[in-house]
Amino acid sequence: MKKKRLPNLLPALCGVLALIAGAGCGRKEAGPPPSVPATEWVTVYRPRLAWTGYTLTLHEARIPVLLDMNGRTVHSWPEARVKSRVRLLPDGSILGLGLGRQVVEYDWEGRKTWEFRTPGAIPHHDVIRLANGNTLVVILREKEPADTLLEVDRAGRVVWAWRAGEHLGALIPAEPDHPHDLTHVNSVQELPENPWFKAGDRRFRPGHLLVSARNLNTVFVIDRATGAVVWSHREGLAMQHEALMNGPDLPRPGMIQLFNNRPRSFATDRRSELLEIDPRDGSVVWSYRTAGFFSPTGGVLQTLPNGNRLVTSTRGNRVFELTPGGDLAWEWVSPRYEPVRAVRVAPDFCPQLARLPPQVRTPVTPPPGYRHIDAESYRFARQGSRTRAMVEGTKRQVLKQENDCRDLVLPRDGAVRLGYGIDRQRLRAAGRAARPPVFTLRLRPAGTEKDVELLHDTVGLDGPAWRETTIPLGAYALLPVRMCVQIDGGQPGEGAAPRERFAYWEQPWIGTAADFARAQGGSGGDGGDGDDGAATGDLTPEEREVRRKHLKTLGYVG
Predict the structure, then answer these.
(1) Within 13 Å of residue 308, how many CA atoms lie on the same side as its CB?
(2) How far is Cα 268 from Cα 251, in angstroms, rounded to an integer?
(3) CB–CB of 82/58 below 8 Å?
(4) What is the spatial distance between Cα 313 and Cα 342, in angstroms, rounded to a whole number?
(5) Fold of 37-86+183-365
(6) Largest CB tally within 10 Å, which of 39, 84, 181, 484?
């Protein structure tokens, strides 16, 4: 299915002009982009439990949209084309990271009102408007291994800079996991008023900066006056995102919220974690971790004024709201793309929203037994477990191991698509024609000792050398299972060179109808491992090249 484009070429042309000349077209498209959903993407809505507001997210990962509680688009900025981060400002403007090397601001009508370019550096992950009216952005300079924070004024002058490499010596390990991207800062917050500072703890002075550095598994506070790191926390963190301290207008002021991704749990329980930390002693005062909730990259945890929490599970394609007791109050699931850092704002956050009529709040009741399972919970293998091989003259992405088992949580109405087969020339050369390989797929539900054989197929010199099939998994919906693929007879023998291998499994692809349609449309699928790019569906060639350089700088692609 070919992905739909915007109504006309003007937005794309504006994006190209912005990248080449830094100019905006100064005009707003009428109405929301096509294919922005109405109510069907809201899968759960309990008005009595949810906090009413508007949710800001990025349509197709780059067009800012505001949604009401039933998923209706109340406003959009089709020409704004941003990546990774967009923030709504109190005057109705938006501040974001442009698709090139710039920070951009657009007014409510979609006119570009400000831009700051960062030649020689990639702005990434976060940009905020400070209390003094200046803008702070995270950048990674070319050929520098650690991030820099820049504060710029309205005239584009850099008035303050903080280089991580000059201040984080004690937090950087002697042998870092990512020597070319030491810090990978993914969020910055200007500390709000908080009870700790009022009680005399100067580490948490309002105006200091709370920073999340993913590749250090650490969050820390920077003293704006000296640049010193005055507080840090890393215990239990694993490539976390979005450190946010609750302000005085929120419940539990002074507590720090974190989305703890835990990407390495892909090999174990596959569970991300939501944390609330008391920064005085680093203790965890609240946490949430459950089967089927797993986003190895991305993610946001936002405290709402009624005590609920809004969660963006980027790799789970959903945004959901939890009550303090962990009940699901609201859920929005995108069947087309990964949501990027959604945030809920109050109905009167800006004058334009305050003038809208009150929302018509229609409850959405899911079917009995409904539970969304994030796609990474049932993805069979990541890039490190796959390789490319020529099989019968076709380049295929195959599993490195012929015999492999994974613990998964299967989705509702799921299926597994399999590709497997042999290279007949190598099979003949191995002298094993009398024993063609047997391909087997087995599944064992958790808590049982019995394997269920879903596939048993012998592939020899007669018949198709490469075979593909789809097997329904509906009977095991929402269950934790162990799935195993096996090849009996696929290797030439002990000591054989890798090139002599002649039997292969393609990456088993488990998904729902929405997963398969999303990948077919080019909006993502079963192979991506980054967390800061935009989906590539309608990017211009210039934008694609900028995106490629951006992801390469951040270490997502080679």
Answers:
(1) 22
(2) 34
(3) yes
(4) 9
(5) Neuraminidase (2.120.10)
(6) 84
